[in-house]
Amino acid sequence: MAPGQDHMLGMSAFCRRTTLTRDAVRLYVRIGLLHPVVDAGNRYQRFGEQDVERAQLIRAAQSLGYTLKQILAFDARFGGRGLRRTDKLAVLDERLAALDIQLHELRRMRTYLTRKRAWVADGEHGVAPPFSGTQRRGWNDRCG
Fold first, then answer.
1. I want to staple 9 with a disulfide (CB 3.0 to 4.6 A). Which of 13, 28, 120, 141 is the partner?
2. Which helix (DSSP H) or strand (DSSP E) does residue 105 occupy?
3. Residue 5 scores a pLDDT above 70
4. Which of 13, 48, 68 is a domain's end point?
5. Residue 16 reports pLDDT greater than 90
């Protein structure tokens, strides 16, 4: 084993640590989202802390509705060699703006469901609260 690889995880340990399936890990490696070290002697893949962190980030992005294609596209744009700091900041600002919109839509849905729950709990008297009664912001609005 090469120096600095003594704290590396094998496939089973990596799967346990990240709660990913072997198939998911193999897919992420195949499409280039994870970059394990391959042991020259036995061809086993070994994963470091940076891989654990990356796997957790991928899972978080997926839980927010990002597809692997979108994650790959962001990774390609942000990780591009020679990308200037201003370009990196622009990519990050774009992602932050998209998250602001998602946060607003989640708050909007939560408000609606809270009102709907209260209406049901009170015996469903009167008109059900409309979803259209919650404020919607445009793509260029910032949520605060």
1. 13
2. helix 85-121
3. no
4. 68
5. yes
E strand spans, 3-137: 37-38, 45-46
Q: Is the pTM of this model over 0.70?
A: no
Q: 54 with 13: CB under 8 angstroms?
A: no
CA pair distance 134, 130, nearest whole angstrom:
8
Is the same domain home to 56 and 117?
Answer: no
Q: What pLDDT was estimated at residue 65? A: 85
Q: What are phi and psi of 9, to 5 degrees?
A: -105, 140
Same domain, 24 and 58: yes
Distance of CA 35 to the CA centre of its chain: 18
The tokens describing 129, both together, are 């609260």
